[in-house]
Design a protein that fits this description.
CATH topology of the largest domain: L-fuculose-1-phosphate Aldolase
Mean pLDDT: 88
Distance between the termini: 64 Å
Number of domains: 3
Low-confidence stretches: 68-78, 383-399, 532-539
Shape: elongated
Radius of gyration: 30 Å
Strand content: 5-15%
């Protein structure tokens, strides 16, 4: 729900002064330091902006040094008017922005564009970049012209939840004038950039006393001569909106009707049932792509629920209010306009998964057809406005000729449970979930006040396919294992650790299993340090799952965790193992059984859980086992280890035979003499002594005379995971050992 408690002004003189001193030590002038300080206050409140939304600016002087060009902008004398605009740059988030996130543009040449009758988006971007003091700086915000045209030194812009609940109403102009009075100008929805800058400036010129602008279906601008004043006005007017919503919810102006009456008798799935449902949903949200691994692109999922979310998805009218669209057009690139609504899960376990798969098949097909119709209509008939003058020509980037984005839903509503958000990465899925959770609050507040009426589909199409909006998502090439989840056992050290890092480098999301939680945390930290994490404060690529793989219940829990964290699993590397030694006639039954439990039965437990998940997901899968040369060429005293490893080879082949029909590939890596913790307790030294050589000579005792590294084994696992037409095989990684060759 929208927070209806009064907004808190978080400005603190001591914190502001600390920011001035901290940034001043880096040569940052005081106005820019305070701009950073209040921008971070705004960005830190998700009720104001989410994930890169909103923008802020300050007008200042372009001085020599890192925050000016030292060129023709010069270094104005004290008291001279501002000659540069420092405005939020593309790719920066207000919550974490630094001075470098405010590219500076020469102010007067940009203000001169006020007299231009029309301007395409491309021309606007070119003009802004042409006036950058630092040519290598990021692109200025698309709202930079509005910030420049207004005379105020500080300008703030947000998509506050409370504001959206009021601007997404029938007759929103009248609502806003009643709530805010004359101190805020109220403008109809106009596309950001040149069109909005023009009408915003006209509104200010009609009444220079206004201290902010409310944009219907969009958000709020406030401005002032100081950072404190502009920020304070943002908090004040958002608080006014909150109070109006609270009054309406309590029976005041909006009537206070009950929102989302809940359907009775809904089945409420527990964690295990949701973990079964997630791969079914994930499998349905994919599409064919010959250039992708396995010939398809999938999604990562993120599940979310709360009391407010449940009230929304369980509501009797969810088909209606969830089907009206996004709260602000800025969100459409993250969540699509509409969610996919599924029927509640069946209480009958014998029918549940089949019914879910059938409803997904029908629902996704209908969603894709509806999106295609939306695209066709928009591509053919979209009104002008995405560039050019307000209501005028858009330049060359509107109307026909656009390429349709993937038509799959990003939000899947599941009554009785919550919702799943989808994205190309876990980061994207979490962002979509954050945005939709706030959308739920906006819809609830808007419905309580009056009726939720967002922007219509034709204008939304323009926004979704606006080149400057699409640029926010980036166009970097996807790595080979992006969108895929790799589960690795024994991941805390040795071969498992190296395999985790190898798959992470290929873009995979990781589910890491081991008995050693601290070791898993270390591996996850290495993944994070390597740049695999995109979502601030979260491991966007590594789930740490402490697990004893010899305990079937623990393995089942780990697979459930992976399914709920990512939506499913695509590759399983069953790696955990340990060496037991002893002559076969002398080894204790306890040791032999312990070796079989870890080196054979644990692999069977992991593989069985994997194929059950693969079958639900319906997209195939890859089973990879860490075997051993001992399976083919056992050494003296190695029977307790060699026997279960030989059985593991047979297990791998049996999975290849039994599950090829559902697209599962099963293979093994046959490594030898890799220096890992597997050879703990003096095993390595004993093996070397038995051959009459030193440890280093023992490790290099192969045809190539080279020791085999953990990274070599990891590379073999990655290679097998990519080998689309290979199953039932053993790949030696041993430097050459003819006696242990599989064939």
């Amino acid at each position: 729900m929208v927070n209806l408690a009064p907004m808190k002004n978080l400005w603190r003189d001591s914190d502001a002064q600390a920011a001035v001193e901290r940034y001043g030590a880096r040569g940052v002038p005081e106005p820019l330091a305070l701009r950073v300080y209040t921008s971070r206050l705004i960005g830190g409140d998700p009720a104001l902006v989410l994930h890169g939304g909103g923008n802020t600016s300050v007008k200042g002087t372009a001085a020599h040094g890192p925050y000016g060009d030292g060129g023709d902008a010069g270094a104005p004398e004290a008291g001279e008017p501002p000659n540069a605009l420092f405005v939020k740059g593309s790719g920066w988030d207000l919550a974490t922005i630094e001075p470098e996130g405010f590219p500076a543009v020469r102010l007067e040449p940009i203000r001169a564009l006020r007299s231009v009758a029309r301007m395409s988006d491309e021309a606007m971007v070119s003009a802004l970049r042409g006036q950058l003091l630092d040519p290598s700086a990021p692109n200025p915000s698309v709202e930079a012209l509005l910030h420049a045209f207004l005379p105020h030194r500080f300008v703030d812009h947000t998509h506050a939840d409370a504001i959206l609940a009021l601007v997404d109403q029938p007759g929103p102009e009248a609502v806003c004038r009643e709530v805010f009075g004359p101190r805020l100008a109220v403008l109809p929805f106009v596309f950001p950039g040149f069109p909005l800058a023009g009408i915003a400036m006209e509104a200010f010129e009609r009444d220079p006393s206004v201290e902010g602008i409310v944009l219907i279906n969009h958000g709020l601008f406030t401005f002032g001569e100081t950072a404190r004043e502009s920020y304070g006005r943002m908090i004040h007017w958002t608080g006014v909106a909150q109070q109006a919503l609270a009054d309406g919810a309590n029976g005041g102006a909006g009537g206070g009707k009950r929102v989302f009456p809940v359907r009775a008798g809904l089945y409420e799935p527990d964690r295990a049932v949701l973990a079964e449902a997630a791969p079914i949903i994930r499998g349905a949200l994919g599409f064919a792509d010959p250039a992708a691994p396995e010939g398809r692109r999938g999604m990562l999922l993120h599940f979310r629920t709360s009391e407010a979310i449940r009230a929304f998805v369980d509501g009797q009218g969810v088909e209606d209010y969830a089907g009206r669209g996004v709260a602000t057009p800025d969100h459409i690139i993250r969540t699509k306009n509409l969610p996919l609504l599924l029927p509640p899960l069946e209480a009958d376990a014998s029918q549940r998964n089949l019914a879910l798969a059938e409803s997904l098949s029908v629902g996704v097909a209908a969603y894709v057809d509806a999106y295609q119709a939306y695209f066709d209509a928009g591509n053919r008939e979209a009104p002008k406005g995405a560039g050019g003058e307000a209501g005028g020509d858009t330049g060359g980037d509107s109307g026909g000729g656009k390429t349709m984005l993937d038509p799959l839903p990003r939000i899947v509503l599941l009554p009785g449970a919550g919702f799943f958000a989808a994205g190309k990465t876990e980061t994207e899925a979490r962002i979509a979930a954050d945005i939709y959770e706030h959308t739920i609050g906006v819809i609830a507040a808007a419905e309580s006040y009056g009726r939720y009426v967002p922007l219509d589909a034709p204008r939304l199409f323009e926004m979704e396919y606006w080149s400057l909006e699409q640029a926010k998502l980036g166009r970097s090439a996807e790595k080979p294992f992006s969108r895929q989840v790799v589960l690795i056992t024994g991941a805390a050290s040795g071969i498992g650790r190296a395999t985790a890092l190898a798959f992470a480098a290929e873009g995979a999301h990781l589910a890491l299993l081991d008995l050693d939680p601290a070791g898993l945390e270390d591996v996850a930290a290495l993944v994070e340090a390597a740049g695999q994490v995109e979502f601030p404060g979260q491991r966007g690529a590594a789930a740490v799952l402490p697990c004893d793989v010899t305990a079937p219940a623990a393995v089942a829990d780990a697979f459930q965790d992976a399914a709920l964290r990512f939506g499913g699993v695509d590759v399983v590397v069953s790696n955990a193992g340990r060496v037991w030694q002893g002559a076969m006639g002398e080894v204790s039954e306890q040791d032999l059984r312990a070796s079989f439990e870890l080196n054979f039965f644990a692999h069977q437990t992991v593989a069985a859980e994997a194929v059950r998940l693969f079958a639900r997901q319906g997209t195939g899968g890859r089973l990879l086992f860490n075997a051993s040369k001992s399976a083919f060429n056992p050494g003296p005293g190695m029977g307790p280890y060699a026997l279960p490893k030989a059985a593991l080879i047979a297990l791998m082949k049996q999975y290849a035979v039994d599950y090829a029909g559902i697209g599962v590939r099963s293979n093994a890596v046959n490594a030898d003499r890799v220096h890992t913790a597997l050879f703990g307790d003096g095993v390595l030294e004993q093996r070397a002594k038995a051959r009459g050589v030193g440890v280093e000579e023992y490790l290099s005792g192969n045809l190539l005379g080279l020791p085999v590294r953990t990274e070599d084994v990891a590379a073999a696992f990655v290679m097998l995971a990519r080998a689309e037409r290979t199953t039932g095989t053993v790949l030696p990684v041993d430097g050459g050992n003819i006696a242990a060759a599989p064939r």
